[in-house]
Amino acid sequence: MKPWNVEICDVTLRDGEQTPGVSFTPDEKKDIATRLDAIGIEIIEAGFPIVSVHEKEMVREISRLGLSAKICGLARACREDVDASLDAEVDMIGLFIGTSDLHIKFKHKKPREVVVENALEQLDYAVDHGLIVRFGAEDASRTDPDILVDIYRQAAGHKADYVTFADTTGRLTPLEVAMVMKDIIPRTPVPVAIHAHNDLGCATANTLIAAELGAFQLHTTMNGLGERAGNARLEEVLVSLVLKGGLTRYDLTEIPALSEKIQEYTGIYMPATKPVTGANAFAHESGIHIAAILENPETYEFVPPELLGLERRFILGKHTGKRALMHILTSFGYNTITDEQVIQVLEKVKDRSEGKCSISQQVLREIISRVTGEDLINDDTIRENSGCPGRDIY
């Protein structure tokens, strides 16, 4: 399989911080940027420098961290925004204008030709000052494709390095993205970036289909932060690029810790069933599944937990089978328990689970003690071996 020709521009520090109620401290921003760099992210959009003096200074500090990633600042197509990005010492600028009829009429309130002409002047100014320029079409998904391609071609003629297709309102489905990418990419002379929002829950899928069809720069946020329902999720996009796109240059073992840090910094926590970073992403309860996984994990896993530096876990519950329970007990040091006792423990585990009682370390110990008449190991040993302190699953 030929690897997909893509790069990541992570916008957690900009679009992600536009999540309602989210604001990163300077130390948090630098920590996130450093962790993104450790993964191998090619471009980090560090902020929107014109927003405030504080924001500009923060982008400048990230620019001075000496990271391998290029640092990008977002800017409207106006001189003061470009100057703010220059002051922030960024490598790249994401210059944008609204291109749909709706944005032209109600936001810019000027003829399209005037809006585009002014934007191209700012593009020239940014290029003349040595910036890599990504020329963005906001609300591209509601812009006539022929008009969009014409704007892209003009931007390329003024030495833009990329152009952006932004599904600003998250209105597109994967089939719609496929149709538009097949149309505009062959007609656009510079690489296309895809910026997808998640209002219909399609941002990650839309980003991946765009990548498969030739979009080069993929915009993501960690944990799917962003305006309203957020953006394409970095963790899901990266895993897909490795398993579907044939890429090997990203260090995915950095993802779990970054996800946890983002949750800590924002107070926005991932549901247990969240792909890649959810607590249950690599957990199994079904006896049928676990029995097969013990023979070969590929039977019921497409994403190997080892890819992220994690281990699979087996949950004790109503669907647990004898073999899974024996595996858990053996791994915890219960080597002398008999088959008959295992069956009794399993019956009690199922009874407790039917009553919606979590099978915690303490509950499991109590069950085993009642069945065997002795306390074989203590809670600390179970907790240490579980690799999951304080959780009710193993």
Give a brief outline of the structure.
This protein has 394 residues and is α/β, with parallel strands linked by helices. The protein has helices spanning 26-39, 53-63, 79-87, 101-108, 112-128, 145-157, 174-184, 203-212, 234-243, 255-266, 287-295, 322-331, 339-354, 361-372, 379-386, and strands at 7-10, 43-47, 70-76, 92-98, 132-138, 162-167, 192-196, 217-220, 283-284, 313-314. It folds into 2 domains: 7-266, TIM Barrel (Alpha-Beta Barrel), CATH 3.20.20; 283-386, no CATH class.
Q: What's the topology here?
A:
Layout (H helix, E strand, L loop, with lengths): L6 E4 L15 H14 L3 E5 L5 H11 L6 E7 L2 H9 L4 E7 L2 H8 L3 H17 L3 E7 L6 H13 L4 E6 L6 H11 L7 E5 L6 H10 L4 E4 L13 H10 L11 H12 L16 E2 L2 H9 L17 E2 L7 H10 L7 H16 L6 H12 L6 H8 L8
Helix pairs in contact: 1-10, 7-8, 8-9, 13-14
Report on the structure:
By secondary structure, this protein is α/β, with parallel strands linked by helices. It folds into two domains: 7-266, TIM Barrel (Alpha-Beta Barrel); 283-386, no CATH class. 43% of the residues lie in helices and 12% in strands. Strands 1-2-3-4-5-6-7-8 form an eight-stranded parallel barrel, surrounded by seven helices. The chain has a two-stranded parallel ribbon with strand order 9-10. The longest helix is centred in the N-terminal third of the chain and has 17 residues, at 112-128. The protein is elongated and about 85 Å long. It starts with 6 loop residues before the first strand and ends in an 8-residue tail after the last helix.
